[in-house]
Design a protein that fits this description.
Low-confidence stretches: none
Order of helices and strands: HEEEHHHEHEHEE
Distance between the termini: 70 Å
Shape: extended
Structural class: alpha+beta
Largest sheet: 3 strands, antiparallel
Oligomer: single chain
């Protein structure tokens, strides 16, 4: 195993320099091994040579993350792309920050003309790469028969302070001064009392509302022996993938994170 290379800082010039063809002097096997060792050390799923200070046009990635099969690409180039998808992304500015809730902002963010299948890519953009994950290859299709599609409960309180310490500190100090002045003024009167309402902060939820799916698994007639085996496999896989997996004495792989989507949504109709 070669020495693990340190990842470059994002503002490093080499990360902004276009890498030409791999040089003739490049020791391809050594470069590949350096990339593999560094990627595994940082627990990544892919790594480019310039990210660890090697000025060569090469990157590696897991071709199959389950078997840890690694694909090495020297002098990579795009030979085919999805023109429809590329055009869709070209027309959209997914990095745009929609801060308002006006009609204009909502129309820009959502495709309300197609109500059955709204375009959620701009909405989900802030969550992309929030978790460093890779696909498991497992997909589950289950009927969702619950009458409740969404359950939203927002709370505001004094527990959470401003995410910007300086601003939050200034606001708190001004409120403390106002309360002190008011308390001093109350010393000269016995009639009634005063109350200064403090700023309420949004209580960001620590957990999301659960999505409860109930499906019957029949192990009696007319179910066959193969049906019973399939039911067992389904339960086993769900339990296994939703349990922490200890890799060694130090590393623990967390349970799977699921992307949930509705393929068909039946809306209530008038009688």
């Amino acid at each position: 195993m070669s020495e693990v290379s340190k990842l470059l800082e994002p503002n490093n010039l080499i990360l902004r320099t276009r890498m030409e063809s791999v040089s003739k002097e490049c020791d391809r096997e050594k470069v590949r091994q350096d990339l593999v060792d560094s990627m595994e050390h940082y627990q990544g799923v892919g790594l480019s040579a310039n990210q660890i200070g090697i000025a060569e046009r090469v990157f590696i990635m897991y071709e199959d993350i389950n078997t840890r099969k690694i694909l090495t690409c020297f002098n990579p180039k795009i030979v085919e792309n999805d023109k429809a998808l590329a055009e869709k992304f070209r027309k959209k500015d997914l990095t745009k920050n929609y801060s308002g809730r006006s009609l204009k902002d909502i129309l820009e963010r959502f495709d309300l003309k197609n109500y059955q299948d709204p375009d959620l890519e701009p909405v989900m953009f802030p969550y992309q790469r929030l978790y460093f994950v890779g696909p498991t290859g497992f997909e589950y299709k289950m009927p969702y028969l619950s009458p409740n599609a969404f359950n939203i409960n927002n709370q505001f309180g004094e527990g959470e302070k401003s995410r910007i310490p300086l601003v939050g500190g200034i606001v708190d100090e001004l409120q403390n001064i106002a309360e002190g002045i008011q308390n001093f003024a109350n010393l000269g009167t016995q009639a009634g009392s005063t109350y200064i309402e403090r700023t309420q902060y949004y209580q960001y939820p620590k957990t999301d509302s659960p999505i409860e799916v109930k499906i019957p698994l029949y192990n009696t007639k007319p179910a066959t022996y193969q049906d019973v085996c399939n039911n067992f496999k389904l339960i086993f896989l769900l339990l296994y993938q939703n349990s922490a997996l200890k890799q060694d004495k130090l590393v623990v792989e967390p349970p799977c994170i699921y992307a949930v989507s509705y393929t068909h949504l039946t809306l209530p109709t008038k009688a």
